[in-house]
Design goal:
The protein is α+β, with helices and mostly antiparallel strands. It has 23 helices and 17 strands. The strands form four sheets. The chain has a six-stranded mixed β-sheet with strand order 13-14-12-15-16-17. It has a five-stranded mixed β-sheet with strand order 8-9-7-10-11. A four-stranded antiparallel β-sheet has the order 2-3-1-4, with helices on both faces. It is globular, with a radius of gyration of 28 Å. It starts with a helix and ends with a helix.
């Protein structure tokens, strides 16, 4: 019942401070404090048991200073390689369903990997410090048995990945010994806490350089093509083909799995094969069978005495499922096809792809709790603790895996639901597709909500590309990634870049929201909605062409002013004063390079 207990504890103790002493900062919840205490206690216990030492009073109390210097703990980390290529290898048909399933599979596989590793090491769900974005950190006891167990399990898991997906996916891992002094950043002047995370990162990098064994290389060189020349229409492999659609069994599964991911909130992992299972994953010494099912079916199978290994629940804690762990998943989707999402767009029926991630998150983890302007190391690093790192990690995961669903569905602040779908959300990044105008609105919601959530301490940058609904999703993802890079290249980051014009369309969020949308776009919408509804967009296209010429120092001001006069209402008309204000603003903006750039973006959005 330990996993269920942790889930209930998180529900009830997440907002209770761990200490009521007013001289301390009440920034660690009782849940985070108890969870870390359990993890640390477990590691110490397992370490002492492995050494055969039994005089705990002498070791832990009388000789506490010496014990705190011993490498009792292992900081363990694992990281998926090949995520981008794996997710975006999809065909045009059923692309959104396949994207969702592939993203889900990677998240699920990582959680399964973590649980099997914990099982092998004899520790619990209290020990993971962070999981998200294909990456994890776990605190383990530093014993030979644990080292052998994690090495054996990682080898087994990667052999299975190779047998199923070839070189497309690989889970690199690494670990480093650390002491209680390291974890409490003692002595602060030497910053041992940050050094621990650097060491484990280096171990992962080394493992990535040796990802394929000699046996696997030989296997790659003897793969024979099929006599009929068939290969999977999605991923290109020539083995494991099933059905009539020229697809391998995994690509076929990923398309079929999408609807079950949306329909069912219980993931039942059994040691027994039955007709209900959806796919198979490796375990320590065998394979296990995963079923996406209903709560009623899961309870019936438990009552029937099925040999259950564990149960995951999605976005909700279910009482009475004694093997269950709650996984939060960003799974909001207004529609199941890109064609439907594009069809419901306002104005032009186009699809947008949005990619966003938090700025400098790695630096925030490493140095985010240091006190600025403080010279004494012990004071500067007073708040650099394992508890704060773990709490920070968990809250980031909750934002991108749980709260984002309410943001996009409109449950927060009573806003309308957005016509978008989450392809992936976790760790510190987001991938959205949807109606172009709602994707833009969704990006703004995420930016504003994260700023509130982190009290302004964290920022996020993103790119938004606009495409037709049959544009290859992999190409759209690559182009949008370039826009995201353009936003991050701005000074201070905290920016958005949109619609494929590179850095020319990149703005700090504040500028985009207040100047592009709040001022220039609002002026266009007000004027053309009231004054020139019968003119269409032809006049705007002409103005836009002149403004773009001006960006190349060829601004024909006389022509621009002439076009503005053609928008004038009849002389002495009721709204003549409003037109005078509009035309003056348009003229003034054309003279300023930065205002002109913003106006070009606003006109593009208005025309769309």
């Amino acid at each position: 019942w330990l996993d269920s207990f942790l889930a209930v504890l998180a529900c009830y103790a997440d907002t209770i401070p761990s200490s009521t002493f007013r001289g301390e900062s009440p920034d660690i919840s009782l849940f985070d404090h108890l969870k870390i205490t359990a993890a640390v206690g477990t590691c110490i216990s397992e370490y002492l048991l492995s050494t055969g030492l039994s005089d705990y009073r002498k070791i832990l109390f009388k000789n506490e200073t010496d014990f705190r210097k011993l490498g009792v703990f292992l900081l363990y980390s694992a990281d998926f390689s090949g995520i981008q290529k794996f997710i975006y290898t999809v065909s045009a048909e059923g692309a959104l369903r396949s994207l969702r399933s592939r993203s889900f599979f990677l998240e699920f596989a990582m959680e399964h990997y973590i649980d099997e590793l914990l099982r092998a090491c004899g520790v619990s769900r209290a020990n993971p410090l962070y999981s998200g974005g294909g990456h994890c950190y776990i605190l383990l006891p530093n014993t030979e048995a644990v080292k052998q167990a994690v090495d054996a399990w990682n080898t087994r898991f990667n052999e299975w990945l190779f047998s199923q997906f070839g070189t497309r996916l690989f889970l690199a891992h690494g670990y480093t010994p650390c002491s209680a002094d390291d974890l409490t950043n003692t002595p602060a002047a030497e910053a041992p806490y940050q050094a621990v995370f650097r060491r484990v990162s280096n171990e992962i990098s080394k493992h990535k350089l040796h990802r394929v064994t000699a046996e696997q290389l030989r296997a790659l060189n003897v793969v024979a093509a099929r006599d009929d020349g068939r290969e999977c229409a999605v991923c290109g492999r020539s083995d494991r083909l099933v059905g009539e659609k020229n697809r391998c069994e995994w690509c076929e599964l990923f398309e079929a799995l999408s609807r079950k991911i949306q329909s069912y909130n219980i993931y039942f992992i059994s040691n027994e094969a039955n007709s209900a299972y959806d796919f198979v994953l490796p375990a320590l010494n065998e394979d296990v069978f995963i079923s996406l099912t209903s709560e009623k079916d899961a309870r019936n199978r438990l009552v029937a005495g099925e040999n259950v290994r564990r149960i995951y629940t999605k976005n909700a804690v279910y009482t009475g499922l004694q093997y269950s762990t709650c996984l939060y998943v960003g799974d909001y989707a207004a529609a199941n096809s890109m064609e439907e999402l594009a069809k419901n767009a306002e104005g032009v029926q186009r699809l947008s792809v949005c990619r966003m991630d938090v700025d400098d998150l790695g630096q925030a983890f490493v140095s985010g709790f240091e006190l600025p302007g403080e010279d004494k190391p012990e004071l500067k690093n007073h708040f650099v603790t394992l508890s704060r790192t773990a709490a920070f990690s968990r809250q980031m995961s909750l934002f991108f895996k749980q709260h984002i669903n309410a943001l996009l569905s409109g449950a927060y602040l009573g806003r309308p639901p957005l016509n978008v779908a989450i392809v992936y959300s976790g760790g510190d990044d987001v991938f959205l597709v949807g109606a172009w105008n709602d994707v833009l609105d969704g990006a703004i919601r995420i930016h504003e909500a994260l700023s509130q959530y982190a009290c302004g301490a964290l920022t996020i940058s993103g790119g938004i590309g606009i495409f037709n609904d049959h544009f290859p999703i992999r190409s759209a993802a690559l182009q949008t990634a370039e826009l995201e890079d353009a936003a991050k290249n701005l000074p201070g980051k905290n920016a958005i870049a949109l619609f494929g014009d590179g850095e020319e369309n990149a703005y700090p969020w504040e500028v985009f929201i207040e100047e592009v949308q709040g001022c220039k776009l609002a002026t266009l919408e007000t004027f053309f909605g009231r004054e020139a509804s019968g003119r269409g967009n032809s006049m705007l296209y002409r103005l836009l062409a002149l403004l773009r010429d001006a960006q190349n120092d060829r601004m024909p001001l006389a022509r621009y002013a002439y076009l503005l006069t053609r928008l004038a209402p009849p002389q002495n008309a009721k709204n003549d004063a409003f037109y005078q204000l509009f035309s003056k603003s348009m003229y003034d903006w054309a003279l300023s390079p930065e205002d002109r750039r913003q106006l070009i973006t606003a006109i593009s959005i208005f025309v769309y």
